[in-house]
Amino acid sequence: MSFRSLMLHVSYRLRYPGRALVNAERAARGMAPVMVLAYHRIADDAATPWTQSTASFANQIRWLKRHFDLVSLAEAQRRIHSGRNHRAAASVTFDDGYADNCRAAIPLLIREGIPCTYFVASGAVLEGVPFYHDAHVGKRLALNTPDEIREMAAAGIEIGNHSQTHLDLGQVHDLDTLYREVVTSGEELSNLTGKPVRYFAFPFGHPPNMNAEVFRLAREHGYLGVCSAYGGYNFPGDDAFHLQRIMADDELIRLKNWMTVDPRKLAGIKRFEYGDAEWSAAAGAST
Questions:
Q1: What's the DSSP call for residue 94?
Q2: C-alpha atoms less than 13 angstroms from C-alpha of 281 in its C-beta half-sphere
Q3: Beta carbons of 202 and 209 less than 8 angstroms apart
Q4: Residue 242: strand pairing partners
Q5: With 60 as the cut, is the pLDDT of residue 235 above it?
Q6: Considering the entire predicted model, what is its pTM?
Q7: Alpha-carbon distance 95 to 119, whole Å?
Q8: What's the rounded Cα separation, in Å, for the pair 40 and 221?
């Protein structure tokens, strides 16, 4: 165990009793958080920093099942928009579309009946285009095939849109490009699965990578929600159209620190603002 991990364990044990009291009080008031986790690739080769081991993933799912209602994104939105939630909830999502996820992670979720939204970059799946972020670290990792995406959709995994080419959309201002990345890519995935694509997740997902125009396009073209990935907690009464996600980590202790609502993280996260309050409320009302 590294020194940093040891300190996280110590901090968690010291702070957990206080957090538990605060969380119990929130739940009693109907203000329990609704959290969304983002995973990328589950495999045992430690190929990239965004690869998590199968054992770690299974341990995290076991821990999450004991402490949270594991819900779909639609149910997460319902709880947020209703303004009342009496038990902490979590929703599992994946980004990108790596073939290794079909070996252990997705079968585990299907066996356990755990809802999952699987965000796919359509170009990677339909054309086999490798991700720049993999090539940048000298890796060429297998991507999901169209057949795998169809099989997951048929098994109840919700397929979401993660853009067409995994662009940093925060740096894109050309409307035609944004349309392809948000609307056309969703149509491609819908044609592939025969099912509507209801959610969009920003590539990279931090505020500099986000774009208010994407929210507008998503809303106008029938998406039910848009996901970021810069860390963040969703509470009842928040904007249900913009779902803030927490990036999963290979270490269970880091997940525990996030999911038990670390007050230092809560105080330091500023929600990305993409439109006026009236628009945000209308978006939430559609879920």
A1: E
A2: 5
A3: yes
A4: 226
A5: yes
A6: 0.94
A7: 5
A8: 26
